[in-house]
């Protein structure tokens, strides 16, 4: 007696003869119609190292599905590379792609009534999109992360012989713009930064989100850890395929997205000095699941949790070093033993604590620090409110001790304008750069400001200049940076009312960002700008997208 399953809707009964006829052409036979049909959704693309190896790993996933008695069905989903789109118009497409990827997964699975899914991910947005889709669809599923890139090693120049990442390439642009390094040095870094396949190598957004999904329970603990070109990667891909097929009759993705698992995921972000984008993405995943979650969780956790992973950009090492030091499991075990995590189910079938107890011993005490010798005593993410950000904003101080900053506003209506001013040397220590009309709807697309933060870093101004934006930051951004300011300028947010020279006060401890101005008078004199029309999907996204404080999703809410 075979179990009933969702895919019976396309494979069972006389009325499905035409559907079966088509499926037979794909290789299915009578006995296969009794197998759970598992979507293998691959965000492969040859455009970026983050995803370019996923095509080679797909056969291992398919093998795993078949071994566990499932019938794999392959789909492609797109990726928009953050690293390649950074600093130009194309970066607007990055956050938009998160919605499109989640929508594509939904339509592939829902459209064909599939029983389970494995989603193969690499670059930043593919990871939260996979979790959002599993939460939305509530089908059983597993997220498989393609892994980090290896360290680069320049052959010549000041960084010769050192481990570098894409962060060094972005910051070299800033240094080159100021004349601190020459063309040859920039070229040496450019040629070495990306030695092969894999996602950007620090605790930037991809590695942060891959870790967060393991703590959320939607990615099997440890499967994402081996670097992209590591010999263990194919076995992990196969494990994920097997798990998805085995889980075809188990609970759906939504059941893993609980208040407890979201807190565990946020804690992993804070304790690893992870990307501010995680604030946006975990809020979006929670919204898709309908699970209550406030971005304030990041602030509370950040105040009580030490940073124990010594990873770039706040620390010293790369994700390949984390893997060598015992990976997410050993990192998590330290946190578990310190009483920071709560136990929760995971897709492997083992609970989070069972997984973490299996961590291997390691002689390392520097990549993953013991609790008594942390990289920082507390985390570097703060959620601020105040006059300038009534719905919230996210501050990243990782690596910079300042709890307060006060200075004159330098107003820019786009990222490009600010970048040009930085490169011309017009921004000085003490300034508060305000980059607005870069929010989810106003950009549209809420671009990452890595070009600007890297240019500031390249000029030795990281931490000496504050940067406020309704856009967002890259995981490689560092300095005294505040993003996700909500409401955004294009939706009437106060950030749009600031003027050149206004004194901005940022109080990380008091969780406020204020300006001493007559807000009523400013608003009365303000002419709201119409939304920028850019055509195509950009306009659809601008019309639908919600506040960054709720994840900047395109979920249709009551009254929207
Ligand atoms: C290009 C990067 C480093 O991947 C960035 O987009 C991030 O968010 O970390
Ligand atoms: Mg990014």
TrEMBL record:
Keyword Aminoacyl-tRNA synthetase part of the UniProt annotation: no
Swiss-Prot/TrEMBL keywords: 2Fe-2S, Amino-acid biosynthesis, Branched-chain amino acid biosynthesis, Iron, Iron-sulfur, Lyase, Magnesium, Metal-binding
Enzyme class: lyase
Cofactor note: Binds 1 [2Fe-2S] cluster per subunit. This cluster acts as a Lewis acid cofactor.
Cofactor section: Mg(2+); [2Fe-2S] cluster
Binding, Mg(2+): 82, 124-125, 448
One Pfam assignment: ILV_EDD_C
Subunit text: Homodimer.
Family per similarity comment: Belongs to the IlvD/Edd family.
Entry protein name: Dihydroxy-acid dehydratase
Organism expressing this protein natively: Parvularcula dongshanensis
Organism classification: Bacteria, Pseudomonadati, Pseudomonadota, Alphaproteobacteria, Parvularculales
